[in-house]
């Protein structure tokens, strides 16, 4: 006889509760619009000190579902865990996303780690029918867009 105590599992509940109407959500059609939303929500006290990774989640019409802080690291890096990124994207039923992180040095050019991570996340997103629209490297003075530079 099998005892139920051996098979206890946590209940998982999924909810997404936006407090605004779909037409009130900002629409992103350019990298400049994405940067404007990101920089308005980035701590200027930390942008030149700690590396952070964020994502903008989008619906099918490129309207913003939300902006999510994925991770905060140190001066030279942060962890962008694909499991966390895709869990959040799936929970909000996002059709697309824009990846973003800062380089505390202010250098906007992507390194090989940035390029490899973008490729890895794009491949994973494709399997989930989520489009990675762009990856921005941001600073308080400007940004680098993978899409605009043909790296997506």
Properties at a glance:
Cytidine Deaminase, domain 2, about 150 residues, 5-stranded mixed sheet, single chain, globular, alpha+beta, 5 strands
Shape: globular
Give the end-to-end Cα distance, rounded to a whole number of Å.
Answer: 55 Å
Q: Mean pLDDT, rounded to whole units?
A: 90
Q: Would you tell me the structural class of the helices and strands? A: alpha+beta
Count of DSSP strands: 5
The main sheet orders its strands as 2-1-3-4-5
Pick out the low-confidence regions.
none
The helix count comes to 3
- Please describe the biggest sheet, giving its number of strands, its sense, and whether it closes into a barrel: 5 strands, mixed
Could you state the order of secondary-structure elements as H and E? HEEHEHEE
Estimate percent helicity. 10-25%
Range of strand content: 15-25%
């Amino acid at each position: 006889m099998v005892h139920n105590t051996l098979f206890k599992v946590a209940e998982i509940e999924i909810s997404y509760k936006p407090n605004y109407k779909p037409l009130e959500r900002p629409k992103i059609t350019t990298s400049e619009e994405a940067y404007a939303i990101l920089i308005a929500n980035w701590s200027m006290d930390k942008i030149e000190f700690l590396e952070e990774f964020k994502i903008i989640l989008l619906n099918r019409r490129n309207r913003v579902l939300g902006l999510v802080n994925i991770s905060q690291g140190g001066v030279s890096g942060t962890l962008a865990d694909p499991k966390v990124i895709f869990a959040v994207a799936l929970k909000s039923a996002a059709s697309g996303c824009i990846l973003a992180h800062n380089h505390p040095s202010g250098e906007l050019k992507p390194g090989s780690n940035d390029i490899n991570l973008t490729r890895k996340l794009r491949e994973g997103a494709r399997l989930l029918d989520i489009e990675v629209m762009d990856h921005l490297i941001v600073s308080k003075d400007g940004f680098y867009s993978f899409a605009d530079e043909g790296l997506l």
